[in-house]
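Tokenised fold entry reproduced for absentees:

. . .
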Amino acid sequence: MTPLVLILILTTATLAVKNPCKVCRDLTDAFTKHFDETVGQNYGGGNTAWEERSLGRNTYATSETRLVEIFEKTAKKCDYKCGSLLEDQEEYIEEWFFKRQETDLFEEMCITELRKCCSRNRWGPDCEECPGGVETPCSGHGKCKGEGDRETGTKLTGTCSCDKGYNGTLCEDCKRKFVRVDDTCEECSSLCKGQCTAPGPAGCEKCIKGYQFLEETGCTDIDECAGDGCGDPALEDCLNSPGSYECVCKTGYARVAGKCQLEDLYASEDEGDEPTDETVEAETTESPGEGVGETEETTIETPEETKELPSQRKVASKDTDEEDDDEEDDEEEDYEEVDDEDSTTTFAQLKFKEQEYQENLKKLEDALADVKDLGSNKDEL
């Protein structure tokens, strides 16, 4: 066996450790369960009533066959601690099975015989009574910690664990934000700020933010929209909600610096530096030899005759659902014109580069000629 496997086995065993009372209770619960499941059964194929009349004490109810069957099923359900206890107490359980089936196995074996547990609502080595007594421990509003166990696990063993809304040594008091109604503690309304005098909104001493106290209904939502909750109703809507409200700008408006403003107004300011259609037409139609008057005459056109840049048409197409085939054809022509302009520009740049290359070549040839002249003069000398 490897060290790792051994460690895993030991760790599992350590985690599975239970207190003796819990182990004993698990064993008796498992045995009693399978005991109850076999009540009324017989040897198989026979008649239970006939067995009782004819066989007397040798019936299936008190037979070795039934006991072995119960033992086998119990062992399969037990963990290693429970199985170990079953093996130790096999003879005692057999005696109970054959002689005292009418008694409680847990009380007889775990409490009286083995003294591993206490009876209900008792705790500790001496099985003391839980706070408040055996009949109604913790005032009936909590549980006794460690109840039924002879071992004292912590300092809190034998004290009360109170139900929701209760506190005190015997769970006799109500917690904050709970109010006593007869013998119970009921929670204050969620609309109460702090304590209340009765359940519901009418019992609040103070109301949470967004609510006001009215004599008839108690804490009631404040309808901010009924007053001056928002600004100009022509520009924004007021939406009331429990304990709050919201101001929403109407369609076509956007909130800027806390106020609702026309969206088109701010859109035009952002686009103020972009060239307009008329400016583009003036620049494309003006030639170096034409005067100012001709340029202005060209820009005065109807909207149908004015051409759009391709980029502007793309933006406009996002806001429309359909376009005519004629507009698409015009768009293709405009793209072709732009391509012609780009090609013209590229040709001019190439001409300039060629001219510059010729000039540099001429300078290089002149420099070489000077070098040759210097060489000839040296030979003569």
DSSP finds twelve helices and 14 strands in the chain. The first strand starts at residue 122 and ends at 123. Residues 3-16, 278-344 have pLDDT under 50 and may be disordered.
